[in-house]
Every structure is written in C-alpha cells, then in structure tokens.
Fold these 3 entries.
Entry 1:
Amino acid sequence: METRELRYFVAVAEELHFGRAAERLGMAQPPLSRAVRQLERRLGATLFDRNSRGVTLTEAGAVLLREGRAALDAVDAAERRTRRAANGPAGLVLVAKAGASSELLPKLLDAYAAEPGAVPVDVLLCGVGQQEGLLRDGRADVGLLHLPFDSAAGLDVERLTTEGQVAILPAGHPLTGRRTLTMAEVAAIPGMPMPRWPGRDGTYPDGPGPEVRDHAQLLQLIGLGRAAAVLPESCRPMLGPDLATVPVPDAPRVTTVIAWPPHSRSLALAGLIRTATRL
Amino acid sequence: METRELRYFVAVAEELHFGRAAERLGMAQPPLSRAVRQLERRLGATLFDRNSRGVTLTEAGAVLLREGRAALDAVDAAERRTRRAANGPAGLVLVAKAGASSELLPKLLDAYAAEPGAVPVDVLLCGVGQQEGLLRDGRADVGLLHLPFDSAAGLDVERLTTEGQVAILPAGHPLTGRRTLTMAEVAAIPGMPMPRWPGRDGTYPDGPGPEVRDHAQLLQLIGLGRAAAVLPESCRPMLGPDLATVPVPDAPRVTTVIAWPPHSRSLALAGLIRTATRL
DNA sequence: CCGCGTCGATACCTCACGGGTATCGGTGAT
DNA sequence: ATCACCGATACCCGTGAGGTATCGACGCGG
C-alpha cells in the first residue's frame, strides 16, 4: 500500500464524497475514484458502500481509516524528524497546553538548561487535545499531558505530579464562601454552565456551555461571569484578582505526565525526561 | 514520502550495499540508486555517506531508519487489519512467548470464552522478543508481555500480575539445598553460565552462555547441566522432576502485562482486556 | 605501476500508470 | 417528466519508474 493511496482513501473517508475529496486533494474526481477502487481490489476489501447519493464507510473502511491515519502520522513523523536531524544538530520541541503547567514548565526548562549537555528546547504551546497529534506526527518531540483529560495512547510516559482540582469562580460569587464544592454543584450554577472542550477530532460536543479552546479564553469567560470551570490546583498562581477558587474534592485527580513517542529516545530527550522526573 | 521509497531506503540501510539491496528488492541497482538519491533530494538530507567501497548511514539516515521502520510497520498493520476486518467478521490473535505464562494463559482463554459475546481467539506462540513486532505490524491484536524483559514502548498495557524470580537448577545440584540465592551466585556457578537471549534485532550479545530462543530449549539445557537460569516463579509448574528451583530475592520482579496497539481498541479486544484484568 | 575487480553513478530507452477531459447511468427532488 | 447530483467509465497524454549498457573511482595483487 502506497501512502498516496492511503491519503486518497483518508480524504474520501473523511469527506464521504468523492468530488469534495478530489477538490481537497487538488485533483479531478475520476482518477480518485479509480485509485480508491484499485486500492479496494488490491486489499480484497470493500471500503465504501456507494449508495448513489453519497458514500458510507464499511466496517473494513472504518478499520483502515483508524489505522491509516496512524500510519500516515508515522510516515509524516519519519519525514519531519529526518529533516530536523539533517539540519539542526539537535534541539528538542516540547509541546504543552497553553496556560497549563505554568509552574512546572519554567522549572523544568530552567533545570534542564542547567544540565551538562543540554540542547536548546523550543516550546510549542497549543490548544487542548492537540498535543498527541503533534507528538505522533513528529512536529514535537516531547510533551506535558494531563491525565485523564489527554490520552497517552501510543506514547511512552513518566508520571510527574498528581493534584486535585478546584472550581474557578468570579471573585465575589456567593459560592466562593464555601469550603468545598462538588462537581454537581459547580455544573449546576445558574447562568454559568461548564465550558465545552473540543474532542480529539476538533469538534465540540453538544450542550449549553460556551466553546473554549484554551485556558486564557476560559478564564476570561469566567471573569465575565459567563461560565464556571473546574481546573487543576496548579492553575491558581496564574489567576488574576478577579477570580476565586474553591476545592472540589470529588473531581478526578489530575496527573501531569511527560510523554514522548516510543522508539525516539535520543540522548537529549533522555536527559530532559530524567530532569523532569527528578523535579 | 511514499512507502516504496521508504522500503528502498530501509533495504539499503540494512544491507549497506546498493547491489545486494537491489537484489533483495527484486530490481536492478541503478533505479535503486536513483530512487534513494531522489529521496535525499526531496528530504533535503544526506542519508548515506558513499565512501566508495561501501556506504554508511549518516545521522539523519539513522533517524530515518528507526522512524521509517516504525512507519512501515504501521502501514503493514493498517493493511493486515483491514484485510482481516473484511474477511472474518472478527476474531482476535493473541501472542505469547512459548513456554511463558503457562498458568495465566489457559485461565484467561477459558474465562474469556465464557464471556457473553466472546469471539474466537487464535493463540500465536513466538520466540522471545518477537511479540512487539507482531503487535506493531498487525499480525497480532493483543499479547502477554513480561516487564522488564519485553519493552512495551508504543503499546497500551494493563498490569496483570507481578512475581519474583527463582533460579532453575538441575535436581541434585549442591546449590538446591540453599534457601535463597543471589543473582551473582547464580551467574557464577562454574560450568553453568547464564544463557544469552536474542536482542530486539534478533542477534545475540557476546558472552560465554549458550544462545537460547525459547523456554523449552533453555530448560532442556539446564537439565543437561549446561546452564543455569533465573525465571519467574510461575514457570515452576511446567518443570519436570529433573529440575529444582531456589528463590532469588534480588532478581528484578517480573510484571506480566496484557498489551495491545493503541487506537485499535475494538469491542472484542476490550472484552478480552477486561477479562484479563479481572482474573 | 599496471591491469582487474568492485561498486555506485550516469545515460538513455521503454512502457505502465497516474492524472486529465468528456461523458454516461442511476437516483432523488421538484 | 425533467433536472441536478454524483460516482463510474472511456479514452488520451505525459511523467516517471524500471530496465540495460557503460562510466568513473577506488583498492588490491602481481
């Protein structure tokens, strides 16, 4: 199977429409139809049900979509990492969620920079749920993830810290007088619904809350009294005076891990991981 | 990057010889040379140092070899799993080291078969260190690994059991009278060196001990008085009367885990994993 | 010092196949 | 009944993958 065929298939599987997929791929529709049919013949598997009026994925097609995306990511990662290895003599790209781990991250970077043999570390801040993709397709070498929010599937990890969560409320809100709150109480505050985070595919679940992409955005909304949220304790130092926190003991505890793609444990990466676990 | 180019590169990188690589690929040498050069141009990276009289990998080439193998495995896995999904309506392939987990494995299979909605499970017994490859390229869906011997890099795992290790000696050997032994003592028994296991690339490290590939082979050698070994406790029930065991408290404890490729958690696989963790 | 063998690169040819345009056939909506 | 939509088919063309023949550089034995 060639990556070209795989890319064609994934495009069609995502669009569920040969014409649009062809447009996205910058080609005409007939050769795309032909290529997909040829792939089906070679695999001996029907990938799409063509119900004249759109297409749908078969079971085998769903498998190939899942596995094929992972394979394409791996190919992209190989290409990117090779390019990087050829140009700069090293350097690491560390990815973290914008606004998270605001204490841990500078500590880690300082501690690592002080190590003998440390290489330059580029920090890549991204939105929620994008880290895994960046790690898997080679745009980043190592990342800070927060379990159970992020999934570490397919990545190697080391535990760093575990912490409880707190509710974030506008200063002066009646509930800020409470010693603790429950998840149910926070979720039920009138007029301040819990925000909705994007899923792994970048789309938002349905619901009443505002759609948020990163922490800055969320904190602003809370300051405006338009939302309430539950976040890890470590976000406290970065809150302005307009926000208050109340512990939420029944919220799941959050584990911060350092994660990296398997089989890519370079010397520099190993040093960074060692530094992180010693903090 | 096309998989074809990647396969060509990997062949040359493994042979370090364009002629032999071309032969292995079933093609002539000139087009292979040209394809590799073109890949280098497209990547903007020199992959080989052509020192007239053989070739050697550059740093970037080493990166691409490592990452490219993983990528090719992922592509193969996608292809294999799609074919399987298209033909049989399911079934799982479970891989285990021949001779290991001899108690756990039948228990797991029986318990799973009794579950509602269980699918047929094919058991694939393999040599030491081959499980990861089989899982990564899609020939197997799930496996039993033994940490820290096997590496679970790039696989999702659930812990099943942890156990200590025992020395395996021929019955009647003077040391069988001891209550415990240390690793050092077992390694130093005259005339009975510790065996050498193959590494991840299938080659054996240098040393005095015999080369072994699976447990049956090893136990036979011990019975002949040609080797001593340290193995997990759970191997005891499968030893014949000609072998004796002595605990080795300072040997690393062995954790048996059930492992599967990430992103491939089918319903059937989830059931098997759930059954395993409940044992 | 000179052939000779080895090995990757180059030159050149051929044809398969990837991609384009034009068009068809089937189906649901109006 | 007609039309719009969408994937499949027919057919053409140019690129490029792969083949053969040969070159150029280097190491080695006589």
Entry 2:
Amino acid sequence: MDMTRKLTAAAERLFDRHGYMATGMDRLTDAAGMSSRTLYKHAGSKAALMARVLTERDRRFMARLEVRTVDALFAALEDWVRVEGCRGCLFLRSRAETGGDTPGIAEAVAAHKEAFHRRVGEVVATDLGREDPALAEQVLVLFEGATHAAVYRGAQTVSAAKAAAAILLERARS
Amino acid sequence: MDMTRKLTAAAERLFDRHGYMATGMDRLTDAAGMSSRTLYKHAGSKAALMARVLTERDRRFMARLEVRTVDALFAALEDWVRVEGCRGCLFLRSRAETGGDTPGIAEAVAAHKEAFHRRVGEVVATDLGREDPALAEQVLVLFEGATHAAVYRGAQTVSAAKAAAAILLERARS
DNA sequence: GCAAATGTAAAACGTTCGTTTTACATTTGT
DNA sequence: ACAAATGTAAAACGAACGTTTTACATTTGC
C-alpha cells in the first residue's frame, strides 16, 4: 500500500507530463487510486504535494550524480533521460509556472539547484585534481543545456554536451 | 493606439513573468487596458493569444541573432538577457505548461526551435568556413544551457558559455 | 449625416478549480 | 471486543476560470 509513496509517484508523473497548473486534483486522485479526503490527509495541499514531489525527485536525481568524473556526470544524465524522458527540468518548470512566489515550491527548487551547483563543482574538482569554478560553471551550463535542448533535439544533445565537456576538461588539464 | 500590439506586448509580459496557465483573462484585460470584448475580438482565444505572443517573440529574438560569428551569437544573448531578464525559454515553458497538445502553441514552438537550430548551424558554418553539425549541436547546447542556468546562476552563465564556445571553435579550427 | 465599425462596462454563461464535509465501511492496536 | 485510526464515495463549498452577451458610447468612411 503506502499511500504517500503511491501519491507522490503519481503526482510526479502527472506534473511532469502535463504541468503543475494543468493537472487537476481529480486527475491526481484517479491516478493515485485514492479518495480526495485521503489525498488531502497525506498531502495537505496541491502546492505542498508539488513541494514533496520536488524534494523526492531531488533525492532520486542527486543520488545518480554521485560520481567522480565529468564523463560519468554526463553518463548519469544519459541514463536519466533514457529512464525519465526529455521534458526539461521539472524544478525550473515548477518555479516558472508558479512565478517563483509559492513558498514551499520556490524553496525546494532553490535547494535543489544549490545542491546541483555544489555537486558539479565537486565532480570537476575531483576529476581535475583542483578547484576550477569557471570550468565548473561551463560544465553546469552544458548539463543544463543538454537537459533542455533534448526536449526538441533528442537525447543526442547529452552526448554532444559530454564531448564538449571532455574537450574543456582536457584543455584545463594542460 | 493599435490595440493588437498593446495586447500582445502586455500578454507576453504577463505570460513570461507568471506563466501561461496562472495568468487569467482579467489580468490581461487590466494590463492591456481594454475590455474583454475587445480582447476576444483581437485575440480569438487565450491559446491563440499565446501563439501570437510566441510568433512575435520569435521574430524579435531571431532578428537579434542575425550575426556572423559564434562570439556575436553569445553577445546577442547577453544583450537579450540584459533587456528581457533571465526567466528561461518562453517557448519551452509554453510547451511544457500545455503538455505539448495545444495546436497553435505547439506549432509556434516547433517552428521557433527549428529556425533557431538552423540559425546556429549557419552561424557556426560562417564562422568556421565550413559546415560542422556536431560543433553546431554543442553551441546550441551551450546557448540553451546559458539561457536556463541564468535563471538561478545569473547572467554570468552567458559569458561562461561564450568562453566555452570559443574554445570549442578554436579547437575545431586547428 | 448616417450607417458601420469599434470601443467600454458589466453581467451572465456553464465549467472547473482546490478544498472541505457528510456518511459510512474497514482495519488495527491493546 | 471495542475504540481509534484510516480508508472510500460523493456531495457541496465558494471562488475563479475562459468566454459570450447585453446595453450603450464614440469614432470613422462615404
């Protein structure tokens, strides 16, 4: 059973595929297979549900980025888009849809992006043997770019980003 | 006066800042300074208004990308974010918000992204002196990445992308 | 100078929204 | 075994949605 997990999973799927605003509560109750009363007991509100979806997604996404090389970073993204598809970044999309002024959501997005930025910096430092914030920023841009370009160009953008990152890294090494 | 232009401009501003779904028609009539009857005479429907906003934005955006070097491409993006701010790509956001199944909108997005892809290929070819689809894809990824990373990292992502693109181009030349 | 066109203001349309409530069935811990 | 907890089904809530309509004022072209 575990209604909470079932609800969160169903909500993530619907929010990701159709958008936060466009997804009504009745569609959520249907997909989660529960009454609206149970949904509200577990979720509190639609915004709180979205915030919990984002927190859960952050956990799942960041777990995949526990790597030691920039190459593995993009390999992890290749896996991710193979499993989850190419619909852009749910965090940025949530923030944009809510104008950035829905407390729980804006904070979940900020926390995720900060953690993501820190992780990229760590991976670049580990791979290169020293800190290089400028290179890390470039790798972050490539990662974000691959994620969003993949929406209309397909998963090939991830390999393009991976190859570009390899060149930048090689140059930073010599 | 020119109600149509005033409406389109007001709509672009509101859709961009608060999202398509979250922007109600009364907020649009207020911002455009016209009655709902006049709005519907000029726009037809909310979705048609969004489609027209996107078509108009495509015109304005692509006009800025009439350049001959990759460096100028990113300089144009720097100008754009300075004028328009960093809220991600309105085209991708519109598509995501509507699940990709609102006819006029999905087509405007597809047309824009196809034109954008073609333009990047042309600029790379002009700058390099020959076609290089793989490099063009990387430049496109950097452009898209700078646009979206700027939402939380600020406009500095555009200079990071510009520097990265210069390295990739230099390498492709030798 | 008078129709046609174009505008406003505001009410009303039916629908759908997120959320709460009522009434009742089933499980569960002690 | 019995009370508390947890679930369902479904109606109801007021508010807001996108859109249309009614009634009237102003401009505009011939």
Entry 3:
Amino acid sequence: MNIKQAAEASGLPPKTIRYYEQIGLIKPARSANSYRDFSETDVHNLAFIARARALGFSIEDCRALLALYEDKSRASADVKAIAQRHLDEIEAKILQLAEMRDTLSALVLACRGNHRPDCPILASMSGD
Amino acid sequence: MNIKQAAEASGLPPKTIRYYEQIGLIKPARSANSYRDFSETDVHNLAFIARARALGFSIEDCRALLALYEDKSRASADVKAIAQRHLDEIEAKILQLAEMRDTLSALVLACRGNHRPDCPILASMSGD
DNA sequence: CCTTGACCTTCCAGTCATTGGAACCCTTAC
DNA sequence: GTAAGGGTTCCAATGACTGGAAGGTCAAGG
C-alpha cells in the first residue's frame, strides 16, 4: 500500500507519516521503486498512534504505548501509569486554562468595547 | 537599570527579555558599555507583557495590546475584540481537553493496572 | 513514443516562545 | 592580580509537524 492509501486508512497526512518514520515510530517496508510499502500492521499502528495523539499523548508516550501494545507480556499497570500521568497533566492544564478564562471573561465583561479609550482589560494588564 | 534588575522587577528571566528585544517588543536604551539600560517605562512594559502572557495571549497579541496601550486615542472595542477572540480560543481548548479527560479517565478507571497484559486503554487505542 | 498529471522521494526551512550553552567582555571587591 | 558575578552575541535545541523545492516513477491518452 502506498503512502496515500495509508494516510486515508489511518487518518494521518502523508507528511506526518513520513515524519513518524523519520523518528522511528514506524518502519514501513520499501518497494523496488523506493516507495514506502505499508502493511496492514503498519496502518493499524498508524491508527493506534492517531488515536493516542487525539487523546493528547506525546510522541514519546505513543512510542512507549506502542511498545507495550506489541509486548504481549506487558503489565497493564505500566500502561495505566502512563495514562494516569497524562491525565494528571490534562487536568492541571484545564485548571490553568479555567483560571485564565475566569480572569479574562471578567475583564471582557467589564470592558464596554466602544470608541472610547478607557479599558479595564488594559488597566488590568498595566497593573491597575 | 541592568537586565537583572529589570528581570527581577518584571518577573521575566533575562533570556526572555533579550528575546523580547530581539523580536522588537521592547527597545531598551544602551549604556556606553553596550549593556541594556532599562527605564521605568521599559520595566512597566515588560510587566505588562508578563501579565498578558500569563493570561495566555500570544506574543503577537501582546504586541497589538501594547500598541493599543500606548495609543491614547485607542478604542476599547479594539482591545475587547482581541480579548474576546482569545477567550473563545481558551474556551475551545478547555472543551477539547475536557473531552480528552473524560475519555481518558474512563479508560484509566476501567484498567485494573496489575501484572496482567489485558488493558482497556490499549484496546481502545488499537480500535477495540 | 511522448506527454500529462498524479503520485512518490529527499532535504531544507519555518512555526512558537523560549531556553541552554559557548565564547567572550566589563566591573567591582579583595 | 584575580576571582566572582554581572553583561554581550550567536548558535542550536525543544515538539510535532507543515510547506515547499527539486526531482524520480507510473498509468493513461493521443
């Protein structure tokens, strides 16, 4: 299977697939004409990575998860540890963004947004 | 004022301040010895940028906000538009992260996390 | 047989907002 | 004189792609 088919089947752009090969995430075979030749397993792994990325896992997490996925004697505790750590990071980021949102929405509400220059948003950022 | 004092007064690392000068966000004077010489206004602008960055504004947004801040005939509507757009982006990102969190926390809950290989997390990422 | 268009290849550069390090200069105190 | 603790510049790396250039390959149509 050529890269375009693999891209359509996995939902990843060809550029991204080439990048994943470059960093050693996948190792597709090559045809005689030097084209990449993707097996069903390659496509499956690409879709695996795509789903992990959609959950926000880093590339290095994906590498570790893929290795665990291929290790039939893995311990599910190892997978869970990676997922739990990532979940903690997501929750921390949500808290941080919620704080920004609260501050910012209060400022936006307070700003009249007209032709005049007085603005609580700028006032807040200039230190009141 | 040397860069270290400006860093302490603004809460930004010296490296970051040099970077902000490099991209034209600030334009501190230079002493005879080629050291940067920060005025009170420079430090004030740095603190302004630091607060805007803490609210998640991009550097380009900071540039625009700083320009509006210095323009005494600005319209607060222009400030509000930038802030509202950024607020929308934050809210979109929170929704996206909350979705990741929901999916991921369900998977983490479902995973026993023991020495055995069966794992709903990997199962989900491999396409069930 | 030739051309056209849609593929494919590699490599280089850019994104965003820093951060680290190297190599070197300046100032102050002892 | 020298050591500590500033300062300077420039280059390279981060993460995860993405765009573009220059060129090779392949199937179909004239």
